[in-house]
Amino acid sequence: MPTWPASSTMGQIAAVTAREFNGVRGNAVEDTTVILLEFASGLLATASVCDATVSSWSREMTSGANPAFPQTDRDCYLIGGTHGSLALPSLRPRTATGDGSWYSPPDIRRIDVGSQDPLARTVTQFARVIRGAEPPLVSGRGAGNPARDRGRQVVSRDRRPHRSLIPQERRS
User: Fold this and answer.
1) How far apart are CA 60 and CA 17, in angstroms?
2) SS3 147
């Protein structure tokens, strides 16, 4: 496992720019979204989401979590950085070797976590949280209020309005 230098920490999210589109299906909610995250460290991250794409890359099809969807051997999330990357749900990390350049092949592994029904595991863990037997794996602390924040307009550095996904009280 690589040792991550302190300078590689992402830090707090400093700015979010998002664009959405609902023209494919014409519903009141978006079916396509692109997001640009800018962290306090200067790191940039992107996310692209489209619910109107015919593909085998959906979380439902790749994870096998819902038997109503045919399972594929694809990944739906690709997370990349300067020291490595991770493909999900296959859990295939790729870490830099040699000098970490494009000419050095990455070390590719697969993390084996066994085969369990993720929906059943989620409900079981949630029940343990409700009983007070363990803390939640992910807390809601610091999360924005989507109902309150939806549609809030802010102006980006280039002076174009965009919708903020960061709650007002967390923005400086």
Assistant:
1) 27
2) helix
Q: Rounded distance, CA 160 to CA 157, Å? A: 8
E strand residue ranges, 22-170? 32-39, 44-50, 77-80, 84-88, 92-95, 107-108, 153-155, 161-163
Residue 101: both structure tokens together: 């350049």
Distance separating alpha carbons of residues 5 and 96, to the nearest angstrom: 14
Share of the chain above pLDDT 90, in %: 12
Tokens standing for residue 162: 């965009």
Pairing mode of beta strands 92-95, 77-80: unpaired
For residue 35, the cross-strand partners are 18, 47
Tracing tokens 């990390």 back to the chain, one arrives at 93
pLDDT tier at 142 (50, 70, 90 boundaries)? low
